[in-house]
Amino acid sequence: MARPEPEPLAPETDHQTRAPLARAARATKLALAFLTVIPLGRADDAPATEADLVASRFAYPFVGCAVGLLMAALSEALRHVGVSAAVSAFILVAFLAILTGGLHLDGLADTFDGLFLWGGADRRLAVMRDPHIGSHGVSAIALVLLGKYAVLADLNGSGRSLALLGAVAVSRTLILVSAGLARYARPQGTGRLVIEATTRRDALAATFACLALASAVAGSPGLIAGLGALILAFAFTRLAVRRLGGVTGDILGATVELGELAFLVGFSLSLGLR
């Protein structure tokens, strides 16, 4: 029996076939707007719904890749115009902090102010909400920025671009790893939607994505660096669960910053062992 010819799609059905692509584009746009200071909104844009924000979490790795490519391009441009290693490292660290609006650095400071405070989980969470930065937070920001600067200055060359691409891409993927391994530590908060929606299966997929990204970008040194960043993310999430009862948006931001540094250090060390 001959197969009947398919009927042409109705306009509304054709619209439905495009809907997944439109939703993916919207999710990526929201993720890019959240993780960077790049202005993407328009006056006629519909407000983001909770479902939009939850869906946008899966675009974090793609945003990480995009920002990483931008950082790698800047690194290569500085190298080709002859900017010294030290000055290039400073420009790269400063540009990344500005591009992300200091979002993850703010989370890092809040996390260290609260996480390493004496007292119970409620007191620690209250301190993390305090808009004032404490000595632990200042120290954490200074050490992380200095660590990135030192590694990037030492890596001056094509390896620096690969390290930047891998570090930025993997660290944004670590958000899903940490969010999927713990519950939200507060009754309410900005990170609640993403953390509650992210499952252990999502965390497992993100773990493999981290390793795949790291290996694809920088081969065996990248794979070693990616493993180091993952181990740090697992350990830091476990520490947060022990001290806070779960994770928060600040913990996720701190995981990004620490993951970046861990990847860069791991990459540099692995090159030295070759």
TrEMBL record:
Main location: membrane
Biological-process GO terms, alphabetical: cobalamin biosynthetic process
Protein name, per record: Adenosylcobinamide-GDP ribazoletransferase
InterPro entries noted in UniProt: CobS
The organism's place on the tree of life at top rank: Bacteria
Subcellular location: Cell inner membrane; Cell membrane
EC code: 2.7.8.26
Gene Ontology cellular component list: plasma membrane
UniProt cofactor(s): Mg(2+)
Coiled coil feature spans: none
Catalytic activity: alpha-ribazole + adenosylcob(III)inamide-GDP = adenosylcob(III)alamin + GMP + H(+); alpha-ribazole 5'-phosphate + adenosylcob(III)inamide-GDP = adenosylcob(III)alamin 5'-phosphate + GMP + H(+)
Molecular function (Gene Ontology), one example: cobalamin 5'-phosphate synthase activity
Protein family membership: Belongs to the CobS family.
Organism for this UniProt entry: Singulisphaera acidiphila (strain ATCC BAA-1392 / DSM 18658 / VKM B-2454 / MOB10)
Cited function: Joins adenosylcobinamide-GDP and alpha-ribazole to generate adenosylcobalamin (Ado-cobalamin). Also synthesizes adenosylcobalamin 5'-phosphate from adenosylcobinamide-GDP and alpha-ribazole 5'-phosphate.
